[in-house]
Automatic annotation (TrEMBL):
Pfam short name (any one): DUF34_NIF3
Listed name of the protein: NIF3-like protein 1
Key words of the record: Acetylation, Cytoplasm, Metal-binding, Nucleus, Phosphoprotein
Function, in words: May function as a transcriptional corepressor through its interaction with COPS2, negatively regulating the expression of genes involved in neuronal differentiation.
Binding site for a divalent metal cation: 93, 131, 390, 394
Gene Ontology annotations of biological process type: regulation of DNA-templated transcription
GO molecular function, one term: metal ion binding
Known partners and oligomeric status: Homodimer. Interacts with COPS2. Interacts with THOC7.
Record-stated family: Belongs to the GTP cyclohydrolase I type 2/NIF3 family.
Keyword Iron: no
InterPro entries per record: DUF34/NIF3 (IPR002678), DUF34/NIF3_animal (IPR017222), DUF34/NIF3_sf (IPR036069)
Lineage: Eukaryota, Metazoa, Chordata, Craniata, Vertebrata
Example of a GO cellular component annotation carried by this entry: nucleus
Localization per Swiss-Prot or TrEMBL: Cytoplasm; Nucleus
Amino acid sequence: MLSSHLRLVPTRVQLVRSLVRNPSSSFMDLKALLSSLNDFASLSFAESWDNVGLLVEPSPPHTVNTLFLTNDLTEEVMEEALRKKADFILSYHPPIFRPIKRITWKTWKERLVIRALENRIAIYSPHTAYDAAPQGVNNWLAKGLGVCTSRPIHPSKAPNYPTEGTHRVEFNVNHTQDLDKVMSTVKGISDVSVTSFSARTDDEEQTRVSLNCSQQALMQVVAFLSQNRQLYQKTEILSLEKPLLLHTGMGRLCTLDDSVSLATLIERIKRHLKLSHVRLALGAGRTLESQVKVVAVCAGSGSSVLQGAEADLYLTAANLYQAFLSFAFSYYCRVTKNFPTFMPPPASAFITWAPRLVPKAWLLTGPREMSHHDVLDAASQGINVILCEHSNTERGFLSDLRDALSVHLENKINIILSEADRDPLQVV
């Protein structure tokens, strides 16, 4: 019996080794996957208010065999991810946005975190980084319009640029002033880089001093220069901006190669988004046969992005998504009796206080969705408006994303698209 057992050991070891070394077993280390995802669309493109990147991380080391794509990570979607043995969930919308003070079984978002950690599933959200990316959500949305050229409505700035500091300060020092003392003083200020060169002003040889500095250092530089009236009066202060990225940013302004009627464009959009209905506000003096040449689009919450854009048509989401979230939260408070202190008494009529339940500080502080009054303002200017529900302008992008990520990640991992993910609102 003993000798038989000893003969089996090498076989078992050999089997384990073959599983590890088998090239057909595709997986990626979590850190390598995160690096590749950032190469695909840098998180630096995301808006400052957003919560992007790795939100839930299992204890290391963590390898990923199956990446699961969804627009919204709900409990139903989490159940699907568990059934399909996902190791990594890429949720376009961040399931965690505001800080969580405790992890209990009380709320659905806390339960998502618990289920993810218990089952060693990482959760990652790109959100507005994918909105801004050249191959991202807004470019996908623009594809439904037909052949067109597009540019970002609000271009992103380059995340890195060789120039140091936020401001540039320039001034001249003439021969009667102590150049060495000036240079020594400004070089002694933290976060300051200094260069100097010869300059001729009013037929007088002078030294031009140029320095880059941070906002904090600027105040010290100005305080020093203000002590010398001649220097201070000829000082120039420039604000340094990083260069704009021509194909990256929020929203898209799309110019069609050929003008089409509004009716034709509506059908194209419905076909692209796979919707049977959209909501339309005709601009003043417009009809369904009016020609459309320029379209401003913004997936999701686009009101503040589109505001002021010169176009024949605005395509974005309506305000029902956030209204639904507010309503859902108010219903939760009502059922659990967990009323925030700013709530009116429970005896108040539910419908009357529901819209006031969630204060502005609790909502996303980024772009807002198009409201009733936003639509009226646009229509009064002759701009047609097409509204779809929030995630209907985003969810279809995931199919393109799956294909693009498969190529970018060289098919090293399985990529699955959620079947349970859907917009919470339906037209009935």
